[in-house]
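Quick illustration, no need to memorize.
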Amino acid sequence: KYEKAMQLYHNKLLKIELETLGPDHSSTAITYHEIGNVLYNQGKYKEALLQYQRALEIKLNALGPGNPSTAMTYHEIGNVLQDQGKYEDAMQQYQKALE
């Protein structure tokens, strides 16, 4: 129930942010990242990866590649890939997080 409630909360928040801030705002990216976290914790790696990738695209444009928030999203993508057994791809994401 907690996980479902968190998803509903984040999805509602995302809708509000999309309407008020737009799809390219850094706060919208953070919400995509948080939705990814919920999905990741549920073991829904494909869905989590999609949310992290959305967050990363926005963060790269809004904040740049050197921003700590962008680095965190690279790290989370690495975690998903690692859990999927894609170790080389995960290492690439971790490396980007350090750049």
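The radius of gyration is 13 Å.
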